Amino acid sequence: MSEAYCLKCRMMVEIQNPEMVILRNMAPALTGLCPISGTKVFRFVRRRLDPVYALVLAIERGDELIALPAPEERIQVEDKLVCYGHLESIADSILQF
User: Fold this and answer.
1) What average pLDDT is seen over the chain?
2) DSSP states of 25-89 as a string?
3) How confident is residue 91, by pLDDT bands cut at 50, 70 and 90?
4) Closest by alpha carbon to 58, among 68, 46, 50, 73?
5) What are the structural domain ranges in the chain?
6) pTM over 0.70
7) In the chain, pLDDT over 70 holds for what percent of residues?
């Protein structure tokens, strides 16, 4: 499991209910709760992406540009994608459709 520094407890703690987030600068991070104080803890994750990880930054659909699409957004046949990740991961993700 992952650890983060709790500012209230002033020590490293195990992240409770960890959740992966992508920051505005596209840096991956983990966020969750401190099991002792219940305050929010945060930890940056290495920038090296998992080999099976690809992130869709934008979808161009006709004249419309969907920036940072929601996970529920479906890719359609004529869509153009702006992706971030290892080239092999992106190719594997697209081939799954």
Assistant:
1) 84
2) TS-EEEEEE-TTT--EEEEE--SSPPTT-EEEEEEEETTEEEES--TTPPP-TT-EEEEEE-HHH
3) confident
4) 68
5) 3-44, 54-95
6) no
7) 85
- Encoding tokens for residue 44? 């940056």
pLDDT digits (tens, 9 = 90+) for 5-42: 999 999 999 999 998 888 887 778 899 999 999 999 99
C-alpha torsion 15→20→26→27, nearest 10: 30
Helix (H, G, I), strand (E, B) or coil at 92: helix
> What whole-number distance in Å separates Cα of residue 21 and Cα of residue 50?
14
For residue 21 the two structure tokens come to 């987030």
Are 10 and 1 a contacting pair, CB within 8 Å?
Answer: no
Residue/partner pairs of 66-74 with CB below 8 Å, 24 or more apart: none
